[in-house]
Amino acid sequence: MERVDKCLCRMVWDLDNFEWVAQPANGASGGILIIWNSNIFKKIGCLEGAGFLGVVGFWGEENIPCYLVNVYSPCDLASKRILWENLSNKICSNKGNWCIAGDFNAIRNLQERKGGISVRRELKEFNEFIEISGLVNLPMIGRKFTLYQPNGNCMSRLDRFLFFEEWMLNWTDLKQWGLARSLSDHCPILVKDEACNWGPKPFKFYNVWLQDLAFREMIEKQWDSFNIQGWGGFVLKEKMKLLKNSMKVWTRNHVQVVDKQIEEAKETIAKLDCKGEVQQLSEEEGILKRDLMLTLWQNIQTKEEMARQKSRMTWMKEGDANTSFFHWNLFAKDDWKRPVLEGMEFNKISEAEKELLIEPFLESEVKAAVWNCDSAKAPGPDGLSFGFLKTELEVVKDDILKFLADFHIKSKLRGWIRECLQTNSISALLNGSLTKEFTMRRGLRQRDPLALFLFLIVAEGLNGIISSAVEKALFEGVQIGRGDLRISHLQFADDTLLMGKATEENIWTTKCIMQAFELVSGLKINYGKSSLIGINVNDVWEKEMTCLLNCKSGSLPCKYLGIPLGVDLRRIATWKPLIDTLKRKLSSWSGRFLSLGGRITLINAVLTSLSVFIMSFYLLPKSIIGELDKIRRRFLWGGVGERKKVAWVAWENLLHKKLPTKDNLATYGILTDHNNLRCCWCNSSTETPDHLLVNCNLASSLWMKCYKWWGKKYVLGNSCMMVLEQHKWIGGPKSLDKEWNFIWFAVVWTLWLGRNDRIFKAKEAKAYYFFQLVQTRSFYWAKNIAGLDGFSLTNWCKNPIKCLKTKAKEKDRV
User: Fold this and answer.
1) N or C: which end of the chain has fewer CB within 10 A?
2) pLDDT at residue 56, rounded to an integer
3) Each residue of 776-794: pLDDT tens digit?
């Protein structure tokens, strides 16, 4: 890495908003590169020395001062000592959030190396550097080592992240992961802060604690020990705050061991019971069993009292000890009768359609469904493709029909749906811990296999309410165009867009519709995400109606379901999000290790998910289409950033100056040495497509041999265009034009490959050798690609036109 530029950094970093610093390589010693997101980290300075490179700046919105250092340590111990001393001095003179990472070429203990030689003096001095500098070495998850020798006999942990103590205070849950390596002998390391802030754990006081004399004594002792000065309200608040901390400590040591004491008491009592069945218990064992029973009863009573208080019940007098019932009441809600959608008209299927849905599948329907599928696709994880089903359908037909018949038995299918609705359960995450599973009161939830009912049935109910309001002239929609078409609402899954005249009656009707829908469905409308957008209305009126609906006030332009509304489609800024998203998806990093076919597949996938969605609503301007094509073209041919890369071209485009010969590369600015543009074979003229493929001595000799092979005498043209026209004039049978053109392509392709071998591999070029390649290639192309068989390579080499005419006659007879 002797030279680092923006193009190289862009290949590593996906996003455009980045900055970088680099220390170039020095001989065999590798270079150092640091890249960061400029939106998160703001650089104000650099640190540089032998074997390390660092940046100084502020991190995040909190502007936390940070020192980020990348290390590439030398191998000899003397140089390592200088590196460690320099880093230690900088850390001691600049206290703050230090993060030092890289290849230290040293281990901390013998367990960090497997095989090879470990120098104990180096190990000791490296540990002293870490200790003196106040650095923290995180354990690595996923791997034990980061360096693997090619022979696999030696492994070491040389790469690591070291953090200063202050860094650990700002990021309290840092973890260091060793990732899988590719061709490198080093493993990449990922450091991530996975802290989940669940908020402070709420404190709850349980009255059952007051039955413990030790607890009451603790309260009295702690309260008297607090010495707070100030006015009465402040003193009371502070004492209560301190007392709460003391109660937390007490409950942690006493109350939270109740479950453990209950289990231990049960186990001991069970052992004594078993022993008492065989022999008489001693007096001491009898007393122990009686004390354990008393302790068990007291602990169970304590647990039940806490459960009663959690359930917020006042049934203390009844003494119901059903703890499961109280636990159920923590989550249960009172049953109530909802309104129903009576009088609403819904779309219904006819009796004939109903019978058609439950009719068994016919063999012809199954066969048509299989034949409509791609033979290369597999319907399941077993890997058996539709091609297998098409071929072996007669063998597996009976089993497939039986499966479909059993699957679509009316009672069984209804039973499966009922099972999905009634047996689902969830577990809540409380303060980072999973609670016991409980059954949901609602039958469906998001991401449920049957969750489509939420969007179909429930949304259909809302559609019925709105349609009923429109029919009764309670809600007036908007007129589209000059006809009678009026639209009141549009629905997409669980999103609804209401459109109507800006009248107070429409607003009141909308509010009533929303309230009725909540009562009927049991769902709640998220008014925080809802907006009222007024078009050509008074701002004061809009504000009043927004308050009436208890929603936000919106304006155009805006986005709805990812589609921009009310924007000027002619402006480039309107389409900038689409362009940025396409750049991010088709980043150079994504395609670095993809083949040409893989890049094409990725381009098609991104196009399907991005631009096609927007183009189904809007007509893209010509300039935006050109920009999207440029991005896709650059990704396809491996271009990075602003650097262009020459694309491959079809041979038909030779006449359009797109073949990457030396003169065209110089035109594109890729070849800057204009003294090195001569033909690689004759070294007499500039390498142009016409010279390389026609006018060069080697190329003209090859063409004349081919003319002689075809039994024709022509004066060779002086350009690719003339030679192409001559080839058409010579011609084979009209019905086999494609096969005849294979010969011309074979000549051009052989010349181009020979030119590349001469430039990049220094291979010698001879016209007779090229002529043999043309004969062989044209024969196998015509035979394998066009299916032209029935004659041998020997016959083809003697007279290809005769072979083509013979094949044409056979084709005409057929």
Assistant:
1) C
2) 92
3) 888 887 777 656 666 778 8
Q: Phi/psi at 471 (nearest 5 deg)? A: -65, -35
Please say if the pLDDT value at position 316 is more than 50.
Answer: no
Cα separation, 771 vs 706, in Å, equals 7
Do 289 and 267 touch, CB atoms closer than 8 A?
no
pLDDT class of 24 with cuts at 50, 70, 90: confident
**Amino acid, res. 522:** G
124 vs 106: CA distance, rounded Å: 10
> Which residue carries 């609403």 as its tokens?
344
DSSP-derived 3-state class of residue 438? strand
453 C-beta neighbours (distance < 10 Å), count? 15
What digits encode the pLDDT tens for the residues 637-676?
765 444 455 455 554 555 546 678 888 888 777 777 777 7
Listed in sequence order, the residues at least 6 apart from 208 whose beta carbon sits closer than 8 Å to its beta carbon are 301, 302, 305, 306, 309
Q: 10 Å Cβ neighbour count for 123?
A: 17
CB of 769 within 8 A of CB of 800? no
d(CA 754, CA 428): 69
Residue of higher predicted confidence among 413 and 61: 61
Peptide bond into 557 cis (omega under 30): yes
Other C-beta atoms closer than 10 Å to the C-beta of 148 total 18
pLDDT digits (tens, 9 = 90+) for 340-368: 666 666 777 888 888 887 787 888 888 88
Both tokens of residue 494? Answer: 């669980």
Span 229-234, mean pLDDT? 69
Amino acid in position 554: G
Higher pLDDT, 375 or 766: 766
CATH architecture for residues 6-193: 4-Layer Sandwich (3.60)
DSSP state of 813: H
Buried b (16+ CB within 10 A) or exposed e, 561-592: eeebeebeeeeeebbeebbeebbebbbbebbe
CA distance 640 to 587: 9
Q: How far apart are CA 261 and CA 740, in angstroms?
A: 93
Does 456 or 291 have the greater pLDDT score?
A: 291
% pLDDT > 90, the chain: 2
DSSP 659: S
648 is written with which tokens? 């491959």
Place of tokens 């003494």: 319
Residue-range domain boundaries for the chain: 6-193, 572-636, 652-813
Say how far apart CA 761 and CA 754 lie, in whole Å: 10
Q: How many CB atoms lie within 10 A of CB 789?
A: 10
Q: Could you give the percent of the chain with pLDDT greater than 70?
A: 77
> DSSP letter string over 36-73?
EETTTEEEEEEEEETTEEEEEEEETTTTEEEEEEEEE-
CA–CA dist 278, 141 (Å, integer): 53
Please say whether the beta carbons of 45 and 53 come within 8 A: no
CB 405 within 8 A of CB 361: yes
Helix axes 393-407, 363-371, angle to 10 degrees: 110
